[in-house]
Amino acid sequence: MSSRIIENILRNQSMQSHNVMKEFDFSKGMLNADHDLNYHESDIINDMPVNVAESSWQKIDTREVSYFYRSYTLDSRKIILYFVNEVLKLSESMQHYPDITIKENIVDIAVYTKDLNDITDVDIEMIKKINDIVEDILHIDF
Predict the structure, then answer these.
(1) Which CATH number covers residue 75?
(2) Which of 18, 22, 76, 124 is 20 to 30 A from 96 via CA?
(3) Are residues 88 and 43 in the same domain?
C-alpha cells in the first residue's frame, strides 16, 4: 500500500472514527460487519466511488497524435476533487501534464508526450500511477 493511501486512510479514520471497516465475501455474497447483510456482488460493484467506463486505457491513434485515454465516472464532487488533485500532484512531481476534462461527474484523461505528439515511457509510468490513485480511492471512505 502506498504511503499516500495510508495517510489518507488515517486522516479519514480520525475524521470519521465511528465508521466500521467492512469486508465483502464474494464467495458467500455477504457483507461482514457488525451485521451480516445479504448483498449481491453486482450491488457492491455498482456502489464503488469510481466506475471506469473502459476496462483499461485505450490507445488512440490519429494523424496528429497518439495518446492513452481513459474515462472515469465518479460518485461525488468530493471524490472528483480528490482524484483530480492527486493527478495534478502527480503531474507536478513528474513534470508531465495530461489533458484532463471534467464534465459533470465524468473525468476524462488523455496522456501523451506533447513535444512528440506520441506515447513515451513517461506516459506509461504516469498511467500506472494514475491507476494507483484510482485504487487508493476504492479504499478511502469519503
Answers:
(1) 3.30.1360.20
(2) 76
(3) no
- 77-92 burial, b at 16+ Cβ within 10 Å, e below that, comes to eebbebbbebbeebbe
* CA dist., res. 135 & res. 86, Å (int): 12
Structural domain count of the chain: 2
Q: Distance from first CA to last CA of the chain, Å, rounded?
A: 18
Cβ-count burial of 134 within 10 angstroms (0-12 exposed, 13-18 middle, 19+ buried)? middle
Give the residue numbers spanning the domain of 82: 49-142
| pLDDT tens-digit series, residues 13-65 | 544 443 333 333 334 433 334 333 333 434 434 566 676 555 589 999 999 99
Q: Are residues 67 and 112 in the same domain?
A: yes
**Residues 86, 139: one domain?**
yes
> Residue length, the chain?
142
Closest CA to 69 of 116, 138, 119: 119
